[in-house]
Amino acid sequence: MYLENRELSPQNTEKLVQFQELSGIDDLDKCMEILERHNWDVETADSLFPLPNQRPDGFTGWLFFLSSLPLRVVMVTFYCLTRFFFRIIRPENRPAVTDPTGNVISFIQEYNETFGDQHLTFYPVTYCQVLNEAKKDLKFVLAYLHCKDHQDTNKFCRQTLCNPQVIEFINSNCLMWACSVNSLEGYRVSQALRENTYPFLAIIVQREFRMTVVGRARGQKLERRFHRTIHTLKDLYYFILAHPDSPYQFEMATYFPKRTFPWQPDMDTHPTLAEVGLGASEALLVLDLDA
């Protein structure tokens, strides 16, 4: 029970969320256990985290384990050195979360100004702190990630999160945590929960003494593979426009850091996806300009 009665520093909270994002492990206790075993070195833990659970079984298992150990040590060393030199050449531009509690409180204040204060009780603490509280009180955590630019956000907040029946049920059975993905704390948690569309909710519960994500609810999502050097913003624009629920006037944007791609049919330029900086795996927002 690693998270119980523990207070993480902002730096270690960032490392915990980053490692959860890299490893794909939903179990926060297990992530913390692995990080502590490797002195909170995310890179080393990311390359080694499967090993503690791979217990050799029998003589053949031990023989394979021992014979492959030198190769794994060489591979891990090569991996760490490669990441080290790569980060010297291309430093990571991921900003540090310096005030996660402030990010959450600022979101609650902004939410109240926009939608009023008749809504679910948002706990003004960090993500890890609300998980600690839920573990001690044996309650569910309902995490809501807010994206103010998404076309469905206003409707969801006014009709669902402000619904009296929803408020009564959730407040009686769950600890509600919410944050904006435009803040650093919200963005880190969004990466850990692997969301890619909005509105987004995740239900987290203690299972076998560990806090684990057991359900996710997402908004509508479109998916398609594009070739970065062949397809253009024009191709992406008309792919979205062809959807029955597409707004008539819209812009495309990344989540965080936010970048907009204001391509319109009357433009003469047709940059490729690579030329505008879109990576191999991207999730984009569709911003309704008439909303």
Automatic annotation (TrEMBL):
Transmembrane segments: 59-81
GO CC terms of this entry: endoplasmic reticulum
A GO molecular-function annotation: ubiquitin binding
Gene Ontology terms describing biological process: ERAD pathway
Keyword Membrane: yes
Source organism phylogeny: Eukaryota, Metazoa, Ecdysozoa, Arthropoda, Crustacea
Pfam families recorded: FAF1, UBA_4
InterPro entries xref list: FAF1_2-like_UAS, Thioredoxin-like_sf, UAS, Ubiquitin-like_domsf, UBX_dom, UBX_domain-protein
Domain UBX: 219-286
Name of the protein in its database record: UBX domain-containing protein
